[in-house]
Known about the structure:
160 residues, alpha+beta, three-stranded antiparallel β-sheet, two-stranded antiparallel ribbon, 5 helices, 14% strand, elongated
Amino acid sequence: MRGLFEQNQQDVSATVAGEAGLFSGVQLRHACLERNRRCLLAYLWNRLQRVREMRWEFGSVLPQDIRNCLSEHESQWFSNYNKSLATYMRSIGGHGGLDLTRDKKPPKSLYIEVRCLEDHGEFETESGDIIWLKKNSQHFLPRAQCEHLIRQGILEHILS
């Protein structure tokens, strides 16, 4: 794009100086620059929308393989989006705030059966019970407490 822009600048300067026949080339390159700019902006907007969707899908911590694919600016945008969303969620819903990311779909039951997909170690529930999450172990846990582990890929919801 820089090359097209510089060539246009040279041709515009030459046209102003009195040289004829360069105007159509300037128009063509300008149209190319505008098209490329629109394509790049559409691409960047699409990437940011996907990063935003990942925040709702995976939570505030992205998996390492996805984090490695983000540019520095996208990582910064994700961090700022996290902060803005957290500030908003704290400001609504009373003293503790309201976690909007908890239930993407209305739950049919408060407890769900889950299978552990990888060794995770200790998991303490809100009631104080400590559960060992070992690979292939199955547990009956409160949905609200294990949903973030499901999104991270540590647990899998077993549908009966």
